[in-house]
Design goal:
Blueprint (H helix, E strand, L loop, with lengths): L4 H20 L2 H11 L1 H17 L16 E7 L1 H12 L2 H33 L5 H20 L1 H14 L8 E7 L3 E6 L2 E6 L5 E4 L3 E5 L5 E5 L5 H19 L1
Helix pairs in contact: 2-3, 4-7, 5-6
């Protein structure tokens, strides 16, 4: 018995329509559609439900991406003495002190040779113009000046730096500073101004008994005095800064 082609086509059409309706109402189809439309929302809720239902793990109340990054916020005040200490610390660098010792080792014998040359000229017939006592006083004074520079080097250096800073009052900032350290960089606010520096702009962290220096170069740095900070906060600032610098060098 032959089947009417029209009836066959109508039957197949109704079958395809029912199949599509059943597929649209399937839970798996709904999850797949929602996953494509809102992947973050669907994946987070479906995965959390699966962990809680089958593995017994608790459902997270917040997504991991919303965890706040570590920040250290603190305030301190700067005055002229902080800039003096920073300049002294730069002048006391081992490489700079070695350079000064080499220069002193070269210059001091030159002046001694000048004194000996004057003594030789005096013996050669210039004693009427240059007496022996003059040469002896010259050599003795030269030795005393060299000894004083060695013994009182720090005092002389500080006094010279204070005089230089005092002659340029607009070159330094004195007042309150609000500093924020995070994993990306340093945020500095002071006297209505704000600046942002990334960690890759810094090349090191140096610590003295009284200050912390975030070094931008060999002669420039961010000055952080310890007098306004607790010992625990001071240690945390140094540790966090070194960690961030190490991560940004990778």
């Amino acid at each position: 018995m032959a089947v009417d082609p029209t009836i066959r086509e109508k039957t197949l059409a109704r079958y395809r329509q029912r199949k599509q309706s059943a597929r649209r109402g399937s839970p798996l189809c709904a999850i797949g559609t929602s996953w494509r439309a809102a992947p973050q929302l669907c994946r987070r809720h479906f995965t959390s439900y699966a962990w809680h239902k089958f593995l017994g793990w608790p459902i997270l109340s917040t997504p991991l991406s919303s965890v706040e990054q570590k920040r250290i916020e603190f305030s301190y005040s700067l005055d002229r003495s902080d800039y003096v200490e920073f300049s002294v610390s730069r002048a006391n660098r081992p490489e700079l002190r070695a350079r000064n010792r080499k220069r002193f080792a070269v210059e001091f014998p030159v002046w001694v040779l000048i004194g000996l040359a004057l003594l030789a000229l005096m013996r050669g017939g210039l004693d009427k113009y240059i007496t022996r006592s003059t040469v002896l006083f010259f050599c003795l004074g030269l030795m005393l000046v060299g000894l004083a520079c060695i013994v009182f080097r720090q005092q002389i250096l500080r006094r010279s730096i204070r005089r230089t800073i005092g002659s340029n009052p607009g070159a330094t900032f004195e007042g309150r500073v609000d500093l924020t350290l995070d994993e990306q960089g340093v945020d500095c606010r002071s006297d209505g101004t704000r600046s942002r520096m990334e960690w890759r702009a810094f090349h090191g962290v140096e610590e003295s008994p009284t200050h912390i220096y975030l070094m931008l170069s060999e002669i420039q740095g961010l000055i952080i005095p310890k007098r306004d900070l607790s010992p625990a906060l001071t240690s945390e600032i140094v540790r966090f800064s070194k960690e961030c610098l190490a991560l940004n060098r990778i």
